[in-house]
Design goal:
The structure is a homodimer.
Chain A: H1 2-10, H2 16-26, H3 29-34, H4 37-41, H5 47-55, H6 59-71, E1 74-78, H7 86-89, E2 97-102, H8 104-109, E3 112-116, H9 123-138, E4 142-145, H10 151-161, E5 166-169, H11 183-191, E6 195-198, H12 211-221, E7 224-227, H13 235-245, E8 249-252, H14 263-271, E9 275-276, H15 280-284, H16 289-295, H17 309-314, H18 322-330, E10 337-338, H19 339-346, H20 350-362, E11 366-369, E12 373-376
Parallel strand pairs in A: 3-4, 3-7, 4-5, 5-6, 7-8, 8-9
Antiparallel strand pairs in A: 1-2, 2-6, 10-12, 11-12
Amino acid sequence: MIRDWVELNMTPGIGPRAAAKLLERFGSVEAVYSATRAELEQLRLIPEAIDTIIARDLQATAEAEIRAVRKLGGDILLLDDGVYPSHLREIYDPPIVLYVKGAWSECLDRPCIAVVGSRRCSTYGQNSALMLARDLAQRGVTVVSGFARGIDAAAHRGALEAGGRTVAVLGTGIDEYYPRDHKKLAEEILGSGGAMVTQFPLGTPPVSENFPYRNRIISGLSLGIVVVEAAENSGSLITARLAIEQNREVFAVPGNITSRNSFGTNYLIKGAGAKLVQQWQDIATELPPQVAAKLLPPPFGEKKNEKSLADRLAFVPEGLNGNETSVFKLLTADDPAHIDSLIDKSKLPISDLTAALLALEMRELVRALPGKCFVRKL
Amino acid sequence: MIRDWVELNMTPGIGPRAAAKLLERFGSVEAVYSATRAELEQLRLIPEAIDTIIARDLQATAEAEIRAVRKLGGDILLLDDGVYPSHLREIYDPPIVLYVKGAWSECLDRPCIAVVGSRRCSTYGQNSALMLARDLAQRGVTVVSGFARGIDAAAHRGALEAGGRTVAVLGTGIDEYYPRDHKKLAEEILGSGGAMVTQFPLGTPPVSENFPYRNRIISGLSLGIVVVEAAENSGSLITARLAIEQNREVFAVPGNITSRNSFGTNYLIKGAGAKLVQQWQDIATELPPQVAAKLLPPPFGEKKNEKSLADRLAFVPEGLNGNETSVFKLLTADDPAHIDSLIDKSKLPISDLTAALLALEMRELVRALPGKCFVRKL
C-alpha cells in the first residue's frame, strides 16, 4: 500500500539502508508495520524510528503527502513498482520511494547519461558541460544532473538548447527549488519533456547531508556519468567513486593541470580509471553496443551495408596522402599486420610509417592492436 | 675503424636502416668496404650509395670530419663502442654514429626523461614544461629534449633553472644551432654539465625530413617521454607513437578540450595509453622500481624503517577527520577489506564511507584494489 511506503520513507532515522534491512527482515512494508517493538529493536534502529513506526505517528502525514504530490502534478514510485527505474533498482541501496514530476517515464526510457561537476566552476567548465549535454541530447540521450549551480545547470541548459530531455535530481523535496533562482530552469525542464526526481518528502530543505543521496540517484539512473570539472575535495569526486561502485561508466573532461577546477577530473582519469572525454563520441563508444550503435553514425556512411564485400575491400577513403594510401592498402580487416612487416612491405622509414598509421587511426580507418599490430576498421 | 663508420654514416642514401642491413649482411663496417658491387646490389641500395661505397669517395671527407669534431670539443660514438648509450642501442634502428658534445656521459648515466611538445605552444604549455623539467632535474633526472622553440626550449630551461643536466638532441649537425637565436641556450646547456647529441654530420642544415630521426633519438635515450602540448597533426604525436614502439613509457599533460594545443595530448591519454601527468611524481612512479625508489620520498618520512611493525600498524596519520580515522583503523596492509564489510563495520552511509576512502586514497594512505577492496599502503 503506497501510504505505508511513503510513511516508512518519511520516518526519521530510516534511510535507504535501514529501509532495506526492514524489508529484508519482514518481507514487506505492511509486515514492518505489524512488527513488535522487540522485533524492531533487533535491527538496531534509532529509538525515535522505532517509536514512530510502532505508534504509526506519520500515517495521516503520509496520506496528506500523497494528496499534495498529486495536487502538484507529481507521482510517487515505489521500489516494488514495475515502473520503478530499473537501473536505479540495481544499486546497493535504492531509495524505497521516488517522488517524480514531469515526463519521467519518457526520459528514463531513453539512454541516460549524467553530466555533473562543481558548483563553483570556470567558464571553460560551463562551456564544456553545455556542449557535451547538447551534443548528447541532440542524439536522443537524456541528460541527468543535480540541478545545482555551475556545471549541473549548464548540463540541463545544454540539453534544453538541443530540444532534448533532461532529468533534474533534487536534494530537496519536489516542491522546493534550490537554488531559488533556478525556478525558471525547472519550468523549462518540465516544459520541454523533462522531469524532476527526488527521494525526499515534500518540504525537505536543502541540507548538505542529503546531497550524497541525491548523487547516488543521479548515477543510479544513468548508464554513465561525466564529471566536467571538480576541485580536489569536490563532491563530484565522491559521486564518481559511488558511480564506479555502482558499475557505471565514469568519464571525465580533462583540463589544464594549473586549474584547480580540473584537478579532480584529471585525477579521476589518472588514478581512478575514468575515461577521458574530448567530445560526445568518446562517451557514446563506451556505452553498451546496442545503445552505442543507435547514437553513432556508421563509419562509412549509410550506404556501407549495400556494398559487396569486394567493393568494401577495394574502397580507399578520399583525402589520404600517398603514404597513408599505400599503408591503408597494405592492411586488411582480418589479418592484423605487424609493424615490422609493414616496414618491409611499405619500404617507408619507420617515422613516416608511424605518421601514416597514426593519421589513419585518428580518422578511425585503422585500429592499433596490442603487440604493434594494425587492422582496418570495417 | 672510426673513419669507416663516419664515412658510411655520411654516405648519401645510407640511413640507420640501410646501415643495419649492411652490417647484418657483411658483419662489420670494414667488410662493407671490402664488398663487391654485385654483393652491394643484392641489398637494393640506391645506385649513388653503391657508387660512393665502391669508390670510397668520402674517405678523406670522413677523416676531415673527425678532426673537425675534435676541434669543436666534441666526440663521435660508434654503435659497437662500449660507451654508446645502451638504451639507444636497444631501439629498432639505432644510428650507427652519434656526434656528442659536452658532458654526455654524466648526463646519460642518470635516468633520462624526454620532455617534448609543439614549437607553437601556449603559455600554459610552456609553464607546464618548465615546471615538470625543473622538478625532475632537481631530483637528478636528465631532461632530454629536441632544442626546438616552444615546449622543447622550456624543457631545457626548466632543467637549467634547477641547476640540473639536460641533453639537446639536434636535427642538424653539431656545429649548427637551429634556431639561430638558441645559441645562448646551447651555451647554457653545455655550461651547466649538459650535452648536445646528433646523428647528422657537421654542417647538416635543418631540413624537415631529418626531424623524425632526431625524435627517435630523443625517445631512444630516455626511459620515458612526456608530451606537454601537441596539436592534432603534431610531430610530437608521431614521436609519442615511436616511443611506444620503442617500449618507452609515454606520458602526456592534459589540457582544456577547447585548446587545439592540447588536442594531441588529450588524444594520447584517451586513445594511445599515455599516462596523464599532473606533477613530476606521476612520472616517477611509473619508472622502473629501482629508479622510482631513488626519486620518490618514502611515504612516512625517513624514520619509517626504524619503527617496529607494531608501531607502524598503530600509526594513525595526523589531519584525518573522524570518518577518515575510523575507516583507516578498519583497514590493514595485509588483508584487503571489501567495501560491504567496511559498510557493516564502520556503520557509515556508503557516501560518507566512499568520501573517507577517497580522501585516504588521495593522501596515498590507502590503495583501492580491483573488486572494491581496500588496503593500507605501508
